[in-house]
Amino acid sequence: MTDIVLEARHITKAFPGVVANDDVSLSLHRGEILALLGENGAGKSTLMNVVYGLYRADQGEILIEGEPVQLSSPRDAIRLGIGMVHQHFQLVQPMTVTENILLGSEITLGRTPFLDFEAGRQRVRELSVRYGLSVNPDDVIEHIPVGVQQRVEILKALYRQARILILDEPTAVLTPQEIQDLFRVMRELARGGHSIIFITHKLREVLEVAHRIVAMRQGRVVGESLPESSTQATLAEMMVGRKVILQVPKGPAHADQVVLEVRDLSMSATRGGVALKDVSLEVHAGEILGVAGVQGNGQTELVEAITGLRHVQSGAISMNGSNVTAWSPRQRSSMGMAYIPEDRHRFGMVGSYSVAENLVLNTYHLEPYSRRGVRDDAAIRDHAEQLVQAFDIRTPTVDTAAGSLSGGNQQKLVVARELGREVSLLVASQPTRGVDVGSIEFIHRQIVAQRDRGIAVLLVSAELDEILTLSDRIAVLYEGEIIATVEASQATREQLGLLMAGVRAPLNA
Amino acid sequence: MAPVETTARRASAGVLRRRWITAGLTLLLLAIVILVDRTSLGDGPLGILFGIGVLRFTLRAAVPLIFGALSGILCERSGIINIGIEGMMLAGAFGAFAVKSHTGQLPLPLSLALSTLSACAMGSAMGYLHALLSIRFRMNQIISGTAIIVLATGLSTYLFDPDWLSRGKFSDIAIPVLARIPVIGEVLFTNGLLTYLALAMAIALHFLLFRSRWGLRTRAIGEHPRAADTMGVNVNRWRYINTTIGGAVAALGGAFLVLEAVGQFKESMTAGRGFISLAAMIFGNWSPLGALGASTLFGYTQALQNQLLLSGITRVPRFFISMLPYVTTIVVLASVVGRTRAPAAEGEVYETE
Fold first, then answer.
1. How far apart are CA A419 and CA B57, in angstroms?
2. What is the mean pLDDT of chain A?
3. Hey, are the CB atoms on B231 and A78 less than 8 Å from each other?
4. Are residues A205 and A343 in the same domain?
5. How far is the CA of B72 from the CAs of B80, B116, B127, B339, in angstroms?
6. What is the average per-residue pLDDT within B126-153?
7. Which residues of B touch A52 (CB under 8 A)?
8. How close, in Å, is residue A105 to chain B by CA atoms?
9. Structural domain includes residue A496
10. What is the CATH number of the domain that holds A462?
11. Residue B339: CB partners within 8 Å, gap ≥ 6?
12. What is the pLDDT of residue B50?
């Protein structure tokens, strides 16, 4: 075929300890949207970074329009018409949209070193109109929503006349409506002759927008298929390598008395954060309350207020009838609050400590783990052996450093520590972010099992699927306010999507 | 889109208001100074606070701070913390003096030019060394900067020969017409070449930093080097260039001390000016014009200290008066904490893989 614009042949790339790409071959056709599907750590991003010149492959070659090319830096990639939108946006926060788009390929006033801002602005407006990516050229990046920031990223590539676009997990930060908008732009670009590689692990999106699907697992390409002949189940199986249960079985909730009550909670925004405005919610024993919302709408602030990591300005938090607003995190934890933080590396564990030590981070000061201020290693290790068994944490020994476990096992370790004792409330924030499908299934089962044992669960997640699968009731957080609470059985994806975008439509009226 | 635009507009309204306030204060100060100079108001304590003498001294004290702060901005805007300004300045002072005292037989302008070049060469060498240690050898930039100070202090003390003598300095040049403006002419337009250079450089650098291709790239690599790299900007190359130039600019501050202010070299003659420059850079929020203003403020405290000591005020022990510049630095820095914003990627090593 002559219309192959990009071809990777036998790419191998190893990092100390892991082979991230093992003899990977891939081709991309003109006008095609190719979905590159795989779990975290499957090697998708590594492959794309090789194509974009950020990493150099140990072996293999890249061909553009049939010609072998040397890609030793992003400069080369840009020159060859490759543009990449990274998962973590590569935008300079205090600069304007125009400055960010021009950076590296500036328009200057004649031959002087000075920038021609007017021409730059004009060019940005032109591109913005031509591709339906609406931005204001003079806005400063840190003042605009992530959805708009993503448009700036795409414009950066188009400004450099990219014909091949790589989008790395572009939907992670978007509302369902923004995702539809992105897909519209992608289809339009493809029709206009651009070729797109769309990296994702979300099966629904792959089926919706891709022309062809390639799956990767453990650094290898493990399968290829077409959306017409695939279902979510077949794709999941191809991605994971075995049959997976996408929906954890779950019976009706038997909600009991109120365990957590939050009343009129408010606090002002800290730098880079969101203010909470009069947040009220209740979580009953035996139910899961899901908090839905696009990332950065106050989830972190809410969770940290409830767990005692942040001071609140007004409002009250009660647990099992006691007002705990002024309590320390440890007091709340000993009262029976379990907490799975959104970022396990920073807040959930100490990577350089052993598995056993990490498992007593919340109880090390109590008998039997320490006696008169001296810790009892035998008791700590016994406890660890039990939890490693019960929660299926795959680790060589309990003395292994927690940081060397896989993401899924690290998260299981956090879950084991928090749920391996008697608790009455579980606060779970993004409990499955960056975790493999097998571990997601395990963690979901655990959460449902805890609910069935009569524990109150507050589940905060930016993944709408996760919220819909697990929750009994769903509260939607938008710009620090809970703008609606709905019964999960009556909620639809579209309705939640609108709420997440801040549209307060009359719901069950 | 609507809420987005309003935030942007609100931000620019804040900037605009700040500019009006600055302009207003400047005019007010100017009015006071002219009154003090032209009327009998100047005979009392107001003469000490706002007389021509104190203002001329302010500028003299500010010049090394301006060079130092601009050096800091050059480095830190590109992501390299420069705690070693003090050392670069001292190296510059020594470099200027060494050449000056050995070119006494040449015509004075030539000798001065060679000495200034020598200062810049010494400073660039220090700047390049700092870049090398921070980028190539991934040394902690605070440690590397401290090493620069120790190195410059040690070398200049070891190599300095008290028998060396330097004759002649940059003398004041009155700029035609402008120098005849009352007060302003005397303060701003009757100075040595290096003073004019400092003022011109602050304005030029401000313009370059916010309006030129080099400035855009420099700011980008100091904020988010990876973003710049993915757009094809060579991060470490620009860091080397900026830090090396930064060294030369700091050295001009040293050259000013030797070639325009004092005329001689003394061991450790920079006396903490490099550190006050750092404070001026922070107080000026990493912008050249801000640093110019902050340096002037710190220069003023030094001038005031000087005037107070000269006027023979005895009720306050003179040690307390001598503390003035340093105490002001501390108070000012403590008051701006949280209101200024350092380049986000400052001090981080940038590696691609």
1. 70
2. 90
3. yes
4. no
5. 9, 20, 11, 19
6. 96
7. 230
8. 8
9. yes
10. 3.40.50.300
11. none
12. 81
Range of the domain at A344: 258-354+401-500
- Whether residue A96 is contained in a domain is answered as yes
DSSP state of A326: T
Q: Quote the CA–CA distance of A495 and B2 in Å, as a whole number.
A: 23
Domain's final residue, options A240, A275, A291: A240
Q: Looking at residues A439-447, what average pLDDT do you find? A: 88
Instruction: Clarify whether residues A268 and A348 are in a common domain.
Output: yes
Q: Where are the domains of chain B?
A: 64-271
Q: How many residues does chain A have?
A: 509
Phi-psi region of B182 (alpha: psi -120 to 50; beta: other; left: phi over 0): beta
A90/A172 same-domain check:
yes
The verdict on a CB contact (< 8 Å) between A106 and B229 is no
A84 CB neighbours in chain B (<8 A) are: 230
How confident is the model at residue B77, as a pLDDT?
97
Structure tokens at A268: 């002002």
Cα-only R_g, chain A: 25
Which residues of chain B lie closer than 8 angstroms to A104, CB-CB? 217, 228, 231-233
ipTM value: 0.86
* pLDDT score at B14: 67
Nearest-neighbour CA in chain A from B214: distance (Å): 7
B186 touches chain A (CB under 8 A): no
Kindly state whether residue A505 falls inside one of the protein's structural domains.
no
Among A214, A240, A266, residue at a domain's last position: A240
Distances in whole angstroms, Cα of residue A370 to Cα of each of A363, A367, A417, A495: 9, 5, 17, 51
pLDDT per residue as tens digits for the range B160-204? 998 998 888 999 999 999 998 888 888 899 999 999 999 999 999
**Which residue among B8, B11, B226 sits closest to A90, beta carbon to beta carbon?**
B226
Query: Which residues from A are below 8 Å from B4, CB to CB?
Result: 136, 139, 143-145, 148
Q: What is the pLDDT of residue A509?
A: 39
Q: How many domains does chain A have?
A: 2
Same domain, A319 and A406: yes
CA A78/CA A90 separation, integer angstroms: 15
Task: Please state, for a pLDDT cut of 90, what percent of chain B lies above it.
Answer: 64
Residue A250 falls inside a structural domain = no
